[in-house]
User: What shape does this take?
Amino acid sequence: MPRATTNRWPDMTSTADIFDSMEYGPAAESAAEAEKWLDGHERKFGLFIGGEWRPAADGQSFETFNPATAQPLGHIAQAGAADIDAAVAAARAAQTGWAKLSGHKRARYLYALARLVQRHARLLAVLETLDNGKPIRETRDIDIPLVARHFYHHAGWAQITEQEFPNHTPLGVAGQIIPWNFPLLMLAWKIAPAIATGNTVVLKPAEQTSLSALLFAELCQEAGLPPGVVNIITGDGATGELITAHPDIDKIAFTGSTEVGRKIREATAGSGKKLSLELGGKSPFIVFDDADLDSAVEGLVDAIWFNQGQVCCAGSRLLVQESIAEPFYAKIRARMENLIVGDPMQKGIDIGAIVSPTQLARIEELVTVGEREGGTKWQPETACPSEGCFYPPTLFTDVAPAATIVQEEIFGPVLVAMTFRTPAEAVALANNTRYGLAASVWSENINLALDIAPKLACGSVWINASNLFDAACGFGGVRESGFGREGGREGLVEYLRPEWQAKLPLLETPPAQPTQHAPAAGTELPLDRTAKLYIGGKQKRPDSGYSDPVLAPDGALLGEVGAGNRKDVREAVEAAGKAAGWSKASAHNRAQVIYYIGENLEARAGEFRDRLIAMTGASRAQAAKEVRASVSRLFSAAAWADKYEGAVHQPPMRGITLALNEPIGVIGIACPNEHPLLALVSLAAPALAMGNRVVVIPAERHPLSATDLYQVLDTSDLPGGVLNIVTGGRDELAQVLAEHDDVAAVWYFGPAAGGAAVERAAAGNLKRVWSNHGRRWDWHSAQHSEGREVLRHAVAVKNVWAPYGE
Amino acid sequence: MRQTGPEMSDNVSILPTRSDAVGRNPGMAFEPEWLEEVRINTSAVERRAANIPARRTVKKEWQTAWLLKALTCIDLTTLSGDDTPGRVKRLCAKARQPVRQKVLDALGAGELGIQVGAVCVYHAMIAPAVQALAGSGIPIAAVSAGFPAGLSAPRARLLEVEESVAAGASEIDIVIDRSNVLTGDWQALYDEVRAYREACGAAHLKTIIATGDLATLRNTAKASLVCMMAGADFIKTSTGKESTNATPAVSLVMLRMIRAYGERTGCRVGFKPAGGISTAKAALGYLFMMKEELGRPWLEPELFRIGASSLLTDIERQLEHRAGGRYAARHHQPMA
Assistant: This one.
């Protein structure tokens, strides 16, 4: 019998009746204090800029609603360009003073914010539930305590940033755009690390859920936070676009859909803004036959029926071992029957309201598609309230990777289930997605679980758990789930940069290519050599069949290199993709190979020196120094191979969280014309040391140092395909790399325009880009060009949560 | 499912049993392979156990009804070396009228016939309890089989069970020999419980697995299964004498085993947490767990008991508060 959930207890209030039925009955959280707060503001809210409240300059506003009742809650200012300008100006004005404060002084403010969040915890929780529709149990027990924890943890970072990050400076003004699914928690994830490290912020909450951010602004006032350090501006996507495009913002941090993330990547391309994107997901929930199945079912409740499934890292794709699939499905269905959907202000509710009619319509549409494509839909008898935005928990079986609902993020309480036969197939299915945010692995076999975790393409893995979060542990994705981390040390570096980076000069425009001149008649030439491309460990002729001349500074022809084209890049990426064994090799083994490259380069030092002199006109001493530095840099990369280690985080649980530095995958590297040997080595060697496979476009004007390397590589035991070299037009080839969906990152060092083009093209698969933004790197400086500052670009941090206990 | 067995005709209980409506668990052949399939993840179990009371709550009339229900599931217990007939009579008086009639009437529960689930005593106190509870319908549970260590001579343990049944106990709370669990001798555990089951005759068998001594949740799960295979009508957490008594985590594991056993055999086995449950709030938490994990049928004394003594007073105070709106004093509640 369907249970009515809005008014589930119409005529049954006698003790005797209840004694018989043993229903739970209503238990409403009071909205009185939150209503009083709303009324106290006459249900009209302005923008918080420079420590003061003001209406939008053009007087625009919009209404915000309670999704559970469709009742309006208040009017929110719609910020326009003038407001963004004012907010950014306020943040800019405050930033210098804020950064100058001692770490301890900043820590005191963050500590105060943590305490204030705790003191007003219930008001924040109730307001969040009214505005968002998620169960009061979640805002009360999960969201708000995590917010307080985030400010406490980062108060600590503020205190010790100077010691832990010497010679680093804040970025300046951060523009932060957050989603509606965890409004205040996402605010905390954005604001706490930013202000702890001396940045100031302009933050925009999602238009559906602005209220808790506005209450937080009042807490900032109560904490005495200097005006302008935190600015809260409200508005819709158009307001967000204004922030993204604002020229005086140094950093954009965005959490939201992959679609919008892609637009932001394009919009910020070439702007020099540092970017972190935390986007969508379709995270696998893998259940092996030796799992505690009853506990795994509860894990699923936490994974997909938490926050109505409106969670970027929701475990929305169930992968279950075929041998146990049917009994496991039966357990899931039985559990689903017990989930209560209804008014989120009721304390005994499992699933609350979907955030908006638009979102509800999207869920309904995708479920229809799922049925149309042949999936078997199952929903429990549990009735959904007819008023407001509600959707029942839903299970799809008989679906395959080809189904729309298996590929698309639904962002609702809808689980799709598939089976696998072997651990390898589980990994293959898990990774068969454009996303890579999180994964959950269930097995009582530690060998199996710890074997699977590193093989999953994602940023967080929960072993025998799901949706665990903590301020000490980095959270973020790979692939189209974005890049950058929030939480922990890895999250803090998103808001800092080394001091030297702030002072880099612009790259000078290189002198025009000299005019090629033929050798004087009768000159005795060395034996002709053909510099081909280096792909898959073999020298290959360029697909185009053309060659480009390489000239000395005086225009003399030094040789010719293959004119690589997009097909050559494709072949090189293919070869790099196949060389996956390199990523699995031990760090010790990788180091041995890189040392060996150094040894073999040293053996030919004279030859490489002379080549540099001939190509660049460098003095003998300068050229010799570059070769020596290159050997040293190879040693540095080899040295770091087994020393750039992860961390063991200590979240408040019995267990460990391992932050693993993992290779990114295939990295495309476009080298600058300066220091053609040293720059190539400085970039490629650390990438290789961390286990990546690389496609290098060498210095366009001086590529022979790269082509000369082939023989060095061939004699150094480097497996074929690990390092591939494609000569040719740098920007043309870099564009191909940036547009290649099987390339996980591009490092571009060249003029600003080229970097901008790469960043724009990278939006396609949201690959990571590391660029010099048209600045001149000092390739001889170890500070600029080796060690941790380089290595962090060569890894993705994966947090593996392993609760334990017997 | 077997309602009556051949052994029952030989041992007719003189007092009514509460579980007749449910049907007894006849047990099944020992199946060691089933134990090999047991998988328990401690952290995940603890998370779920902690989560249940956060996900469910009862207020107002619902709280009243649920507290009354908890009351009817109490095995009101005295297990002290200094127990006397006088002390047991006082306990039985409380069992008959656990809440003042005035309070019950004010709550609209005057006609519900609220009394506790059973009175639980040592063998020596069965006789005074039989006398004191005559006509009440309240069953007498006796702890037996060398309680609380369960290590006396095997024949003596069986004899004690038979004697207690003969003396008028309709429920026998035995404690298993933990060494069989700790050494993994599951067959021996099965044989032991099977023997108690036979010795019980018509009386219902509650097996205490003493989770505090079993060290791991996996042991708890396996011991629970073996006891049910051997025909336990109830599985019970603790004697109350171990250093750790009933916890939500061990309870959750035992409930999941009851569910698995029920799915396999169609038999409903009861659950009794005991020891350390002294607040109304904790008792409600257990009721929520029963309903969430096993369902409505397990919210009746036929399938759920709480072994407790001071819990009753705390529930009385909450009920008095519900009835009159004033926070109640302990000394206003009649002593057991």
Notes: Chain A touches chain B at residues 13-16, 18-19, 22-27, 137, 141, 290-296, 298-299, 302, 338, 347-348, 350, 442, 444, 464-465, 653-655, 803-806 (CB under 8 Å). The mean pLDDT of chain A is 96. The longest strand of chain A covers residues 655-663.
